[in-house]
Amino acid sequence: MSDESNLSKWIKGFKKSELVSGTANTKGAVSNVYIEERGEEMVMKETITAIQLNEHIGMTFTMDFMDMDYEMFFKEKEGKTTIISKSTTAGNGIIAKSMISFMKSTMKAQEDENLNNLKKLIEENTKNYFPEKEVDTSTVSVEEY
Amino acid sequence: MKYLKYLLYIVIILALVFFGKGFFTPTISYENEITVNKPANEA
Question: Do B30 and A107 touch (CB under 8 A)?
């Protein structure tokens, strides 16, 4: 999920992410995220507000038009993982607030599409992110007693 | 002129609905869920 090289494969329109301050994938990290929407590039500021490996990640996204609080929860049971995302969006300004209030179903459908892409990506992934370290035994000498 | 008046009323009503919805629901919240056939450390 946090593999940046795969973000464009599951987040629609994702172009790139640039770390602005802090350490990547840690609480307080701020990044500029570039998204392409109908041929237009948008930049939003992403701040990680909470992170617990394999359990929870919380983020805020801010841009001119709207702000979003976004959380993802991971619950593992019998080798399967349920991923729950919670989004709260508020428009900035009276017109944006009104437009956002009509966009709930569109935004939920977009998130559904993104999560289904993520599911497909995870299930088809063959890359091992946690390889076991190989111990070089060729230079080890064994003393005989 | 009469039709213009009705048209103006319709525009005013639409504007009230548009801005009224934004006023009474300034934020939207939604939840999505998927289940992946992999453990959490591979997700």
Answer: yes
